[in-house]
Amino acid sequence: MVERVDSGATSTVKAAAPRWAQHRSGRWEGDARGRPAWTRERFSAALAVLAAGLLAFHRAVPNSVGSLGSLLEAFLPWLGLVVVVLLGMALLRRSATALVALLLPVAVWMHLFGGLFLSGEKPGAHDLVVVQHNVSDENTDPAGTARVLADAEPDLIALEELVPPALLVYEKTLASDYPYHAVRGTVGLWSKHPLADTWLLDIKPPGITEAWSRGLRTVVHTPHGEIAAYVAHLPSVRVRASGLASSWRDESAYLLGKAIAAEKLKTVILLGDLNSTVDDRGLAPLTSRMNVAERGFAFSFPAAFPLARIDQVMARSATVGHIRTLPATGSDHLPVAALITLG
């Protein structure tokens, strides 16, 4: 808008301040679209409250349409990035309202995941170190993979996607340090301690018609008593335009949880590629019965840019302490190692 000013015989034209600059709310002016500062602050505060709500009440997000709840829960820790972005916006705009609102999602995120940052403890007299790894059926270096896993000096090594002739390489490479092993279908367990009572675990969803053997149960005779060890590889999930396709994974998790519930031995360790995170309600048949890792994020998939830990270590009547990733192998997963405290 321009304003004409007459002064005697001459006149000048000067630009009037735009309307958005003529209205102020508090200390800061509005933006170029005419929105006052309080509108922007309210929007940023609303986003902060929404992020906090999704973190705190993620179970309330329905799974009825595209399994959106499970999709959110699979990447739940990454909602923290929303908080970081909002923090940058609040600092840039010097918005005290937005900064105060951010305290809510920060507090919820720290409550859910802050403890995972704490350092792990060193193994004690009644502890086991275990390694879990989906070695990939396309791995071109099984011998190198086996050496990476053995270098962590675990008591137990659980492997998935075992296929011939790679299986023979794993058996040969691990034989000297792990004289006991059991393989059923495409999953296996290598142990420093004797194994007994091994059987194939039927966790195949009814909808899968082809040959499919991805579970085993065995008993590990440790110096501290017998432990039932389960190794499992649940069906993969797919992210599509319609949402998350996870029905087979969920059905397999139910069958696995049912088998563990019926286990007569008190102490149980579950190692496997469960194709989801421990926050995903699809794994509730397992997480409701077993302890999960107390320390560490250990994002394991995809190996090139890990976004989530879908390789899990869980325990019953035992504590899963610190979990961490091991160096990359020829697989599209990273191996994870965890400390199990017995008793």
Question: What is the strand and helix layout of this fold?
Answer:
Layout lengths: L1 E6 L2 E6 L3 H4 L1 E2 L2 E2 L7 H20 L11 H7 L5 H14 L2 H18 L13 E8 L7 H10 L4 E5 L5 H9 L5 E5 L2 E5 L3 E6 L14 E8 L2 E9 L4 E3 L2 E3 L1 H15 L6 E6 L10 H4 L23 E6 L1 E8 L10 E7 L1
Parallel strand pairs: 5-6, 11-14
Antiparallel strand pairs: 1-2, 3-4, 5-17, 6-8, 7-8, 9-10, 10-11, 12-13, 14-15, 16-17
What's the short version?
The protein has 343 residues and is α+β, with helices and mostly antiparallel strands. It is 29% helix and 28% strand.
Report the major sheet. 6 strands, mixed
How far apart the termini lie comes to 79 Å
Give the structural class. Answer: alpha+beta
Unreliable residue runs:
19-28
What's the number of extended β-strand segments? 17
The count of helical stretches stands at: 9
Rg over CA atoms, rounded to whole Å, is: 27 Å
Instruction: Give the strand order, joined by hyphens, for the main sheet.
Output: 7-8-6-5-17-16
Shape: globular
Average pLDDT reading? 87
Order of helices and strands: EEHEEHHHHEHEHEEEEEEEHEHEEE
Strand content: 25-35%
Amount of helix:
25-40%
